[in-house]
Amino acid sequence: GAVVSQHPSWVICKSGTSVKIECRSLDFQATTMFWYRQFPKQSLMLMATSNEGSKATYEQGVEKDKFLINHASLTLSTLTVTSAHPEDSSFYICSAGAGTSGRASGDEQYFGPGTRLTVT
Amino acid sequence: QKEVEQNSGPLSVPEGAIASLNCTYSDRGSQSFFWYRQYSGKSPELIMFIYSNGDKEDGRFTAQLNKASQYVSLLIRDSQPSDSATYLCAVKGGKLIFGQGTELSVKP
């Protein structure tokens, strides 16, 4: 399957600071990337969909000014959690859907390894 | 009604048995169906996808889809302790919707 990387794998930050998480598709071009958040013992919650070269589409209830998403190239999307607070502590996971030039044959999404954010 | 429903489990099976995981969905327009495996503390890993009614086999895994009944299942044959994980069903109509996941425990 297609490979997606995420960096950092874990981060601890102080309340009020900003944190940037990178998501890269390593062996295919990802026209669309997705950002999810997962709290313990809960399922994945889609936060936003980012399309290369255009603005991200945020899910209802997700603050776009707090969770800044940039998808500047076909292999890189970033999520910046601005003015982080303890309630933002969670497991953030990106996924990528392959475009027509990718290896995947259909609608599959491939997940990065995730970033565990702890805000103190 | 949730859009994608799974029994949260835990489902416990002995090693070597068949584990059967079930999922129902509400959107009749859904076209693509996926099973992901998620180990504790890790991100989901795609293990099967199915687009057409019927069965699709890949090694020890078989995905079954019945669009008329809005039902998709995953069978794991010869279950191993390493199969112990949470299995997420995901359904795509417009966007990809995940179920809550079923925790599977395979006992040696």
Helix content of chain A: under 10%
Strand content of chain A: over 45%
The SS-based structural class of chain B is mainly beta
- Strand content of chain B is over 45%
Oligomer: heterodimer
Key features of this structure:
heterodimer, A: 120 residues, mainly beta, seven-stranded mixed sheet, four-stranded antiparallel sheet, 11 strands, 52% strand, B: 108 residues, six-stranded mixed sheet, five-stranded antiparallel sheet, 0% helix, globular
Describe the structure.
The complex is a heterodimer of chains A (120) and B (108). In chain A, 0% of the residues lie in helices and 52% in strands. Chain A has strands at residues 4-7, 10-13, 19-25, 30-38, 45-51, 57-58, 67-73, 76-81, 90-98, 109-111, 115-119. Chain A has 120 residues and is mostly beta strands. Chain A contains no helices and eleven strands. In chain A, the strands form two sheets. In chain A, strands 2, 4, 5, 6, 9, 10 and 11 form a seven-stranded mixed β-sheet that branches. A four-stranded antiparallel β-sheet of chain A has the order 1-3-8-7, with no helix packed on it. The radius of gyration of chain A is 14 Å and the shape is globular. In chain A, strand 4 (30-38) and strand 5 form a beta hairpin. Chain B has 108 residues and is an all-beta fold. Chain B has strands spanning 4-6, 11-14, 19-25, 32-38, 45-50, 54-58, 61-66, 71-76, 85-92, 96-98, 102-107. Chain B is built from no helices and eleven strands. Chain B is globular, with a radius of gyration of 13 Å. Classes of the chains: A mainly beta (120), B mainly beta (108). Chain A binds chain B through residues 1, 34, 42-44, 46, 49, 91, 93, 106-114, and chain B through 31-32, 34, 36, 42-46, 49, 51, 88, 90, 92, 95-96, 98-101.
